[in-house]
Amino acid sequence: IKIISIPTKPIQGQKTGTSGLRKKVKVFQQENYLANWIQALFNSLPPEDYKNGLLALGGDGRYFNREAAQIIIKIAAGNGVGKILVGKEGILSTPAVSAVIRKRKANGGFIMSASHNPGGPEYDWGIKFNYSSGQPAPESITDKIYGNTLSISEIRIADIPDVDLSNVGVTKFGSFSVEVIDPVSDYLELLESVFDFHLIKGLISRSDFRFIFDAMHAVTGAYAKPIFVDELGASLDSITNGIPLEDFGHGHPDPNLTYAKDLVNILYAENGPDFGAASDGDGDRNMILGRSFFVTPSDSVALIAANASETIPYFKTGVKGLARSMPTSGALDRVAQKLNLPFFEVPTGWKFFGNLMDAGNLSICGEESFGTGSDHIREKDGIWAVLAWLSIIAYRNKDTKPGEKLISVSDVVKEHWATYGRNFFSRYDYEECESEGANKMIEYLRERVSKSKAGDKYGSYVLQFADDFTYTDPVDGSVVSKQGVRFVFTDGSRIIYRLSGTGSAGATVRVYIEQFEADVSKHDLDAQVALKPLIDLALSVSKLKDFTGREEPTVIT
Ligand code: VG1
Ligand code: CO
């Protein structure tokens, strides 16, 4: 094939955030913006990681993916990649890309998504690169890519026509080829090896169990019918917003109490379904609801961990270890302690779990931000989490006869709290604040941290320590700092402040609040009520209103 060299100039600001490079579509549409980043990536990888190699490519179906896919294919060919596996119509969820990379032993893969951020010409686009184990590229690589975007002078692109992505099959261009694959089959095959589909099917087909899944017009729309309906026997009308759309039907594809309000209303209506779930833009997040009951993600991962070896065949041989991101509540810590399992606390973002998994130290992990997963792949996995929950409910109801009351999602969670205690948790998001005020607030908090000492009084709370979280990777020794300011009190309560690394405009301030409660008689309290004193403290300690000018958060989870 003929390779053309196109001269180019560095573009500022192409630094990767928590999960890939995310900007407004309009930014990516600037001349060479995406091409520069892709070429900088190839300039950053050792040649043996891609020359004549195999890469995967897919995305969540959002606006600009079609153009982007062609650009990526041509630059990959121009840099000597041997073959690219692309999901049909460019569709592959984030967990499916991870699964495909692992199964096909690819050198890596691209994910075209800005995840839970809205899509469409006026909204967001994003790109992420995953490595050969299927995990998001580590910071050592993304830092290199950023460095190369600042010195780039040439893009190497293959002179080939656009590739038709609408039919499964192989197209050859000399030594380079593109294989369009079914987005579902490799992923489904993996899930079938992880879960007992027969057990889950038994639950879903019960007439006294009603299930609903909201795909939010995002990528899991392509997976929901093949998996829940065709394989597990759910009815077709149990899938809502099941068609992936380029703008997610004007929605904000983030499965939480604010942006998945329609689903929440259905579950909280009188005589609502028994089980509800939703997933985000790229299919790696999940929200789990019971009838009139919300499972906070920090509890979800703890509960899955506590029940995994009994209810999920993949974990029958044992769970190697557990991990959570730093702001995620300590509910999982208690399970690790009780089950005597290795436990890890990592910075926000899935990339930090992969090393622990590759080293064989970690099986199940999660984040408070609706991300849950395991070492079956190296990304969080929305449908995996839904199947894990269905497995638990199915297992617990193995012997529930027709006509008897089913053991519900809320029964299972309350029982878990009674055993382990309840970690009340809430997150307040202040989206699209002025960057200046938000940065100043974090500076101010860092200053407070440096002046604080154990024993300081904060209202009725006594400080155990305050810091800005630093993580040393136990596998490769790499260190990341400034991962979130935390105030930890002697009773285990915590207040944490971070700025989001996934936004595309202004700054999003996240405040995480957590308090442990052992007393069962208090477990039924609403989290907002139970946490009120600590939330007030969090707002006053940070002077958040003064710095951001915000009276109320945009999202509460
Ligand atoms: C957020 C979440 C984080 C998650 C990340 C990617 O990051 O807090 O837990 O891993 O999004 O999720 P931040 O930096 O905005 O807080 V996804 O589903 O957008 O890829
Ligand atoms: Co996502």
Automatic annotation (TrEMBL):
Coiled coil: none annotated. It is found in: Plastid, Chloroplast. This is phosphoglucomutase (alpha-D-glucose-1,6-bisphosphate-dependent). It comes from Lupinus albus. It catalyses: alpha-D-glucose 1,6-bisphosphate + L-seryl-[protein] = O-phospho-L-seryl-[protein] + alpha-D-glucose 6-phosphate; alpha-D-glucose 1-phosphate = alpha-D-glucose 6-phosphate; O-phospho-L-seryl-[protein] + alpha-D-glucose 1-phosphate = alpha-D-glucose 1,6-bisphosphate + L-seryl-[protein]. GO terms for biological process: glucose metabolic process. Pfam families: PGM1_C_vert_fung, PGM_PMM_I, PGM_PMM_II, PGM_PMM_III. NCBIfam families: PRK07564.1-1. GO terms for cellular component: chloroplast; cytosol. Residues 14-153, 186-288, 299-418 form the Alpha-D-phosphohexomutase alpha/beta/alpha domain. Keywords: Carbohydrate metabolism, Chloroplast, Glucose metabolism, Isomerase, Magnesium, Metal-binding, Phosphoprotein, Plastid, Transit peptide. One of its GO terms (molecular function) is magnesium ion binding. Monomer. Its EC number is 5.4.2.2. Its cofactor is Mg(2+). It is an enzyme of class 5 (isomerase). Belongs to the phosphohexose mutase family.
